[in-house]
Amino acid sequence: MFYTFSLNLCNYAVKHTKTLLTKTTHTHLIILIDPDKYNPALLDIANTCGVAYIFFGGSSLKKNNFEKTLKSIKAKTTIPVIIFPGDESQVSKHADGFLMLSLLSGRNAEYLIGKHVNAAAKIKASNLRVIPTAYILVAGGTKSTTQKITKTTPLSSKKEIINTVIAGELLGKQLIYLEAGSGAKKTLTASLIKEVKQHTTLPLIIGGGIDTIKKAKEVLKANPDYIVVGNALEKDPQFLLELSDEIGRRDRRD
């Protein structure tokens, strides 16, 4: 059990371990920070709210502030920061880890291997802990930034989603990341998440469209290893308090 109860702003905290993104018994919370939209106030809340990890990166960065913002975050928190790269330029030795994302839901070779080749030498030189990740876009009711940039189509068929998850595990990936897309109108359903869990032994991350407690409850019913929230916190950092409380209540019940 990773959780320990706290009397801070939120009702639980997380013990951080050196091993990144392992299987869990209860759902852990990850926040996603876009370097272009970084709000230091969010970290003040995150430091008291049992956030397990910070994902750092963006699909389409316009400001040249990746390294500077990462250093600023590391100076304000002990929460492990893992790069969630939007392109091959988003690499830094100052992070705690790096998601080597393969967009298995698409058929664009650039995002299956091309970008990886371009960044390989830089990533290896950084000595970052690299986590090979099966990144799978699932239809979320709106066209996401990732979909636009990669020119790929998200999956909508349950059979195809499950087969892609299985393929990711057979390819040697260490993590499954099911993503409904930035700003998605719909989250993944609890029934789909539960079925996916039956077909993989890998840690499972769910992201996209979690912008209300009602939507969060639907995802949490399936008890994935991790959920990721980003857009909602850019609009309202206080939502992290509500979300943390909901996860804490479920943890105590179980």
List the helices and strands and how they pair.
Elements: E1 3-4, E2 13-14, E3 28-33, H1 40-46, E4 51-56, H2 66-76, E5 81-83, E6 97-103, H3 109-126, E7 130-137, H4 145-150, H5 158-170, E8 175-179, H6 190-197, E9 204-207, H7 213-220, E10 226-229, H8 231-235, H9 239-253
Parallel strand pairs: 3-4, 3-10, 4-5, 5-6, 6-7, 7-8, 8-9, 9-10
Antiparallel strand pairs: 1-2
Structure notes:
- By secondary structure, this protein is an alpha/beta fold.
- Helices cover 36% and strands 19% of the residues.
- The strands form two sheets. An eight-stranded parallel beta barrel has the order 3-4-5-6-7-8-9-10. Strands 1-2 form a two-stranded antiparallel ribbon.
- The radius of gyration is 17 Å and the shape is globular.
- The model is unreliable at 1-8 (pLDDT under 50).
List key phrases describing it.
single chain; 254 residues; alpha/beta; TIM Barrel; eight-stranded parallel β-barrel; two-stranded antiparallel ribbon; 19% strand; globular; disordered N terminus
Largest sheet: 8 strands, parallel, barrel
CATH topology: TIM Barrel
Query: What share of the residues does DSSP label as strand, in percent?
Result: 15-25%
Radius of gyration: 17 Å
Name the structural class. alpha/beta
Mean pLDDT: 91
Which spans of ≥5 residues are poorly predicted at pLDDT below 50?
Answer: 1-8
From the N-terminal CA to the C-terminal CA, the straight-line distance is 11 Å
Describe the strand arrangement of the main beta sheet, using strand numbers: 3-4-5-6-7-8-9-10
